[in-house]
Design goal:
Elements: H1 6-19, H2 23-30, H3 34-49, H4 57-81, H5 90-99, H6 106-113, H7 117-125, H8 130-148, H9 155-164, H10 171-180, E1 220-230, E2 233-242, E3 247-254, H11 259-273, E4 280-283, H12 287-290, H13 292-300, E5 304-307, H14 317-329, H15 339-354, H16 368-375
Parallel strand pairs: 1-4, 4-5
Antiparallel strand pairs: 1-2, 2-3
């Protein structure tokens, strides 16, 4: 391999700057590669720029700007380097250096981490270990499941998913891989709900009394209504949830929050589940649930009506938690152009993901459908 003295490099750079010829032409005359000469020129200009201070104001400002860029890059690297100090895992250090090579020169970055450039190049040539190969395979599965979960799975649910698929991997390793690859589950936001309880209609007693536990399916149901904003206006969503499995057993949407909305959701739940008499149906004191038609439908199926205490949001907390999940994983992530578009998406989410696929921590990271099937 041909070697070049510093004097030769300086002369080559001087020719580019003073001859008026292109880098390619000068490189061809000197018998060196164009990219090699380009690197020398870039390094020379950076060195010259940082050799100030300069009397020329523009040049001095450029020097200070470049110096600040380097300092910021070094600061960011040092923050992350803290995690590696005191450790002997050079492979992790070299991997981090490789990721940051575009931000800072290799020699400077290696010096900051206390490793050699020759060691870095040796690591680059080294064959990956079995653990590294396994991590590459795991990462493919993690990315796939993260996408299928609509970017909602954190490491606990992801770990359960991988283990069920037959992958032998620990939860901490899953968490580390997700963190290193920027796979962060979307955070839930605070949820506001309104209820029209100033209607003067009959109110059922609070039979449930915040006891959300159930021994089997079709023992306790919870119902509620929420709303979704679209470019066409509000779309209202009513759901009926089986408290045993958190499965949404009935749902309906409408452009108006009238009694028919809640009735439709309940009728669908009754048609699908066909519960025995004695089931407890809990809701808030909204006028839709206090209407004569709704109370009659419950009575016809010998269902026990239960309603929250006035102004107590905790009395129907489990159903509100389901709404928070729907909002954070679907509603808040899209600007809905029409009610029809939102309705279709809600149906696909509930019937195609939430009930049959989504893992719930309260169910031992099983989906509602699977939890019910295993309990049957």
């Amino acid at each position: 391999m041909r070697t070049f003295t510093n004097e030769f490099r300086r002369e080559a750079v001087r020719l580019v700057e003073t001859s008026g010829r292109s880098i390619g032409e000068v490189a061809e005359d000197l018998g060196i590669g164009k990219s090699t000469l380009g690197k020398w020129l870039t390094r020379h200009r950076e060195t010259d720029l940082l050799s100030g201070p300069h009397e020329d104001t523009a040049k001095e400002q450029a020097r200070l700007h470049k110096e600040n860029e380097i300092l910021r890059a070094e600061r960011d690297l040092l923050k992350k380097a803290v995690a590696f100090f005191g450790q002997e895992n050079k492979s992790m250090i070299f991997r981090h250096i490789d990721d940051k090579r575009a931000d800072l020169s290799l020699a400077r970055t290696c010096a900051m981490f206390g490793v050699s450039t020759s060691g870095f190049y040796a690591w680059k040539r080294r064959e990956p270990s079995q653990r590294q190969l396994d991590d590459m395979v795991f990462l493919v599965h993690i990315r796939s499941q993260f996408s299928l979960s609509r970017e909602t799975y954190g490491s606990p649910r992801m770990h359960a998913e991988l283990r069920e698929d037959g992958h032998s991997i620990g939860r901490h390793r899953v968490a580390q891989m997700m963190r290193e690859n920027g796979l962060k589950a979307l955070q839930k936001r605070r949820f506001k709900k309104t209820t029209d309880s100033e209607h003067g209609g009959p109110v059922a007693p609070n039979v449930l009394d915040q006891d959300f536990s159930a021994e089997q399916a079709n023992e306790k149901w919870g119902a509620d209504i929420s709303y979704i904003w679209t470019a066409e206006g509000w779309l209202y969503l009513a759901i009926v949830v089986d408290l045993f499995s958190r499965r949404i057993v009935g749902w309906a949407t409408s452009d108006r929050m009238k009694k028919d909305l809640a009735l439709t959701a309940l009728k669908r739940a009754l048609a699908v589940r066909q519960p025995a008499s004695g089931i407890i149906h809990h809701s808030d004191r909204g006028s839709q649930y206090c209407s004569g038609d709704y109370r009659k439908l419950l009575a016809d199926h010998k269902i026990v009506a239960s309603m929250s205490g006035k102004g107590n949001c905790y009395d129907n907390a489990m159903v509100e938690t389901v709404f928070k999940t729907i909002k954070s994983e679907l509603i808040w992530r899209t600007a809905w152009q029409s009610r029809s578009q939102a309705h279709i998406a809600i149906g696909r989410y509930i019937d195609g993901f939430y009930n049959p696929v989504r893992r719930h921590s309260a169910l031992g990271y099983k989906s509602p459908c699977r939890f019910e099937a295993e309990a049957a």
